[in-house]
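Can't attach files on this board, so I'm pasting raw text. These are the components:
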Amino acid sequence: MANTQAFCSSAKVDLMNANFALGATGQTRGATTKDVINVALYLVTATINAATTVYTTTGEVTGTNYTAGGVIATTATGPALDGTTAWFQPSASVVFTNVTLATAFDACLLYNDSHTTKYALSVHTFGSQTVTAGDFTLTMPVGDGTTGLVRLA
Amino acid sequence: MTNGEQRPMTPEELHHRLTHIPEEITTINGMTPTADLDRTVHEFESNEELTYAIEYRLKDQPESDPVHRSVHVQLKRNVTAEGVAAMME
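---
Top answer:
Structure tokens for the assembled complex are below.
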């Protein structure tokens, strides 16, 4: 056997589980339970991307039966390791029920609703859509290290 | 947060949603019998998504905007922390 430089694969999952606080601004968590992850929708005209740091109402959709901040994602399954890739995603489809969103939207933001700062997690885009007195459903990809929605490779 | 709900969407549920026509649905005019409406399903697929849009229009106004439009997006694309990955590998 020989020693090998590595970033420990398990640490990728540990990062997702907040088992490290490496920075000077590490957060004091109020609980050891998992955070609530919300999903908010954004207009085509919005600008949310890798530079987005927190949830914002700027550019968020508005409409009948849509509440600012979006909906809570079901996260029954925590981060997992597939080979050397850690992955995470909501464990169920995200459904906005009986909404009317008349202005075109094409993105959603996953963010930490448990923290007062509402830290951004990831942005996912899709074809431009409107919804009229109907449901908007986002179904997750296969959950693994290849297609999982959020991955640390 | 109170709007919306989360529930699993199995392939069977998706098929049911795309093929089942209820007796009435929500529209901009309130609950409306589907017998009074024309139904169309639009499908779009790319490397990033598989999307179905179900539209209902009033039968006597086929050129009008839909009175009901539901959208189902099956996400395919993942997000990789490429910057982190580059440092880790």
